[in-house]
Amino acid sequence: MAIHNGVTRRFAFRAGLVALSLALAACGSSDPAAEGESDPPAGDSSGPITITYAGAAYAADQIQPVLDAFMDAHPDITVEYESVPFEDFNSVLAARLSNASDAIDVFDVDMPRTDAYMARGWLADLTQTFPDLAESVDPGSLEAATVGDQLVTMPYQTSTNIMYYNASLLEAAGVPLPSADPAERLTWEEVTEQARAAQEAGAQYGIVFDQIDRYYQLEPLAISTGGGPGATGESNLEPDVTNEGWIKAFDWYGSLFADGLSPRGVAVAETPEMFAAGQTAFYVGGPWWGSMFVDNADLQFGVAPFPAFEGGEPATPTGGWSLGMNPKADEETAAAVATFMKFMGVDDGGYAQYLTALAVPPSNLEGSGKFYDSEVFTDSRFAGVVDLMKDELANTATLRLQTVGYVEFEDVMTKAFSDIINGTDAADALKTAEADLVEAWAKFQ
Amino acid sequence: MSTMSSTGPRARTRRHRNALAAVAFLAPTLALIIVLRIMPTATAAGDAMRSGLPGSLAPPEFVGLEVFGRLFQSESFWQSVRQTLVFNLLVNPLQILIALLLAVLLTRNLPASGLWRTLIFLPSAVPLAGSTIIWGIGLRPEGPVNGLLDLAGMTTQPCFTSPDQVIASMIILASWIGVGYWMVFLIAGLKDISPVYYEAACIDGAGPLRTFFSITLPMLRRPLLFVLVADTVANFVLFAPVHILTGGGPEKQSNFLMYDIYNRGYQLSDPYTSSAELLVLLALMIVIVIVQFRLLGSSDAGE
Lengths: 445, 303
Description:
The complex is a heterodimer. Chain A is of the alpha/beta class.
């Protein structure tokens, strides 16, 4: 009953807002001051407005302090947040942007999907709205937010990866603890051997990848062997995942599971627990698990750089989230969304300052200072992590494949990686993937 | 004289009123059938003839049968069809056989048969997603089932993570839920058979096997037909376990049509190929259901 009432009330509220904004649009559409400014016009002068924000990066309770701060600063704009699970995000966007013109006004954009979303007509052009963005955000984020020479999203969060190790398990195996210095980066070959030693000395798992079957974390393996990002050609629409480098990288990755160093049948969401519970010698993952690991006072861990293959170049995952605007948003809504985007990505260092704990570096340069100052990194077990992350973001960070066919690419690659994990020969799985990619990308040719 | 009165004006009004009443009673159902069945199918048929870039907001262009042409050339589509048929050829007879055995067993005068029935039926009261997660954890390589196998000194099994075992694992999962559910319909059917027939068979000296094949099975044909058709339809559109546990893998062995339709339509934002594939699935199901009606329903007319 309560749910019913709530829904009805919200519906009535929405309907009222639509009527209101229509009336406002009729009165205020000829306002010339609203155009051509780097500082987008706030909804302030034009009365209250509600924008709907669909997000996959943060849970509703995590992002709420940011939204509250925004609504305090801009009392006329209400942001309604809808948290969508990452797995369902594409399908939700497809349904809500295609079918209902005003259902979602602003939404999270997974950076590698920017080209695809742009080609689908899901993104409004922001080039005029934020002409000076280069001054505020890191170059990688800006590159990820740009398609051709159009700025199409507001980047707000990027990422990097590190390797955690369980000091107790390594010591028990007589393995020297790795350094956090990027100059002393371990090779995957060394890590494999040490993981095996740790497992023989009692660790349940030798090495576990955080994003166990996702291209985000596995692309650097292929980069490091010289296999490239997975596609070549003018628009990155010629699949290239069966070269020597890819096969070498994924033969190795498959062997981790065949040899029992990594567990099969585990979902991405379950991996951090395995390290937090003290069962795993090496855990390759995001700094965002830091607070979870720090909370366990008995967990003796340390951090080291994301390894590279022997003789190969180091590469680390990067990229994160931007904000996109529904191109169908009316003028009033677009102005409110632009105000919100600026608040998230630009104003005083961006959204990061309102979060109590920062899991990943913000794209905003000023805001990233707050990330590096996070209390979690002052824990002695995290020694050296700040310099390490800065170094990786500056030198080894590798953006994911930028192609209009990224959605298909990720779908196909995730399945190939799952098969490799489950014991399919890497060369076979990648060959199937390449054939699937040719088929899936035919429509873009 | 009856012919006279049936064409009289009063009879005509009555017939007229009867027809009106029939229309009034049928209208809601007809409306629902049109809105929920015929219209979506027509939409799918329309979409299947169009093409556009995935997720694009630009209006799609009409391409006739081109989408079907592309679909029929796709190796992974045919693999999907094959796997769907293999799964259904195995799971449906198996489920119905077990459901029938249980139904027969539990209509005997067993002690606490109500309790057994409840226990066997219970899994179908659990939401499919819940059962899926339970079995996913249960059958995972380091899960409890393998723990028991290990304790018993047997080799552990990869189940859902092996291309050779994923269909069998799906069958176990689907049957755990389905068997109890279909059993209930068959029990109702068994209870409907008049005891007179059994008494007669008994007097004629028929043994239990003869009684089963000559009395029980023929008298059960109608509920069996219903169960067979409904079970087939349910298993053809089985989706949640694939979505939650395997994503169509390993090696596309569980990439059944229903999941592939979802994946193309929503994950890859390609409603056109998805609609074409949906029509193929629909056609396939219609053919199979017609065959089932022929097999089990044919002699109904002779009764």
